[in-house]
Structures are given as C-alpha cells and as structure tokens.
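During the reporting period the student researcher (J.K.) took over the structure-prediction task from the postdoctoral fellow and processed the backlog of single-chain submissions. One of the processed entries is reproduced below for the supervisory committee.
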Amino acid sequence: MEERTAGTSSNGGSRTGRNLPAAIAVGLVLGALVLGTLYTVKELFLLVLVGAVGVGVLELVKAFDTRDIKVPAVPVLAALVVMQAAAYWLGPVWLLATFAAFALVLLVWRMFSAGTDGYVRDASASVFILFYPAMLSTFAALLLKAPDGDHRVLVFIAVTVASDIGGYVAGVLFGRHPMSVISPRKTWEGFTGSVVGSTVVGAWLVTWLLGGEIWQGALIGALAAALATVGDLVESMIKRDLGIKDLGTILPGHGGLMDRLDSLVTTLVPVWVLMTLFL
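J.K. obtained the following structure tokens:
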C-alpha cells in the first residue's frame, strides 16, 4: 500500500486517489469472509485462497498481454489448484515437486502453442507467474495444515495488514522522505509506521493465540513489515515496466486483487519459516 498526501475530497474519496469509504467497506467484507471460513471449515478458506489468487493470476496474465507477452492461463490456474492441494494434504516436498513439474509443463506448452519468436520471453513470464503469486501463496496452505493453523493464518494476515495500515497512516501524517524512485510515494516515515504496527500486532497475537514469546512475535511482525514493503515494490516494478497504474479494478477503493495480494505473498515464506522454527 503506497502512502500519499493526506486529506479528503467532497465525493468521499481522498487526495490519495482512493475512495476510502469504499476501501474500508471492501476490507471489512474481505475480513469477514476470511474469518468466517478460517474458523469454520479450513478447506473453505483454502477455496477462498485459491479463488483470490486465481483472480490475481488472471490479472497478471491480462496485464502481460498488454505488452504482447503471452502466458497460458489454463495450466497456471491448474498448477495453482494442484500446488495448494499438495501443500495442504501432502506437505512441502510434494509442493516443490508439483511446482517443478508444472514449470516443465509451461515450457512444453509454449513450445507447441506458438512459433520460436518470443519463446524465452513468454516461457519466462509463465514461470514467473507460476512462482509469483501462485507458488508463493501455497505457503498459506502450509500454515493452515498445522493443528493451530487457523490461528497461524490469522496472525500472518494480521501482521501484514497492520504493516499496510501503519505504513499508510504514518506516510499520510509524517511522510517526507521517499524510500525509492520505484515508488516515490512510499516514504521512510511510512516504513517506520509499518514496522511499528506489524511488530506490535505480531508480539500481541503470537503470545495470545499461539503461546509464543513476545520477542518471537515481534520478530515475525518486523520481518513481515520488511517483506510486505518488498512486495509492494515488486508489484510497482511490474506495473511500471508494463506501463499500467493498477493490475485490476475488481475491488472498489483497492484496485485489483493483486494490488492487495502483493504484500501478502512475499510475506508468507519467511513467516512460515519462523513459525515452524518457533512454534
């Protein structure tokens, strides 16, 4: 989430260029959907996850196509489903095996679907989307499969959301010094807000829900804030390279689903590693 200047406009939007009431309403609906499935039947949350990431994959496929980069959506979506199932029911080894198998499938698919021109470009882009966001998102299934997986997933989402909110608020109120030319509206003050918000939430929830130590939760939160920022910058690089503002428009006030998933998918792996080590 990028920080921008503060203030609101008469139509309910803000000078951030986002419709904040709509963004908040969408956030609440998404939060209710996540909690409602996460704490009833875990497999329902897995379906929500596959659906959300699947839409993100389609957004990336469409965006790449604007630059004549052809990525076959069908095998990537199939890979997403199989990798999520492998991660949840079989574990990390089978996840890695299915990822490697579908990467090969994509190379062969492109070989027979078009000529030699653009093969490296299209095949590389296909494997890129297979990894980001499809494969990275499967670490949520690895979190979920633990006996306390519902709590682990909630902590992961909470620290990432806290990073976004903390960064947005601090950036709007205090942002003065840009972090990077990649995303000039992202500031060091906003990043500090991200770290503080995510660290506090991590320390609180890891001790309360998972029975961990305060320092463990704080470390998970701080790392989540750093990787969430990296995720924002990665997506900014993609959009700048493709010459587009947003990857989609499906979520009012937010943009596309990938505009919300960017920080989540890059946070998943280190959070899973730390939780596996600590808990």
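The committee noted the following: Residues 84 and 258 are 18 Å apart (CA to CA).
J.K. will present the remaining backlog at the next meeting.
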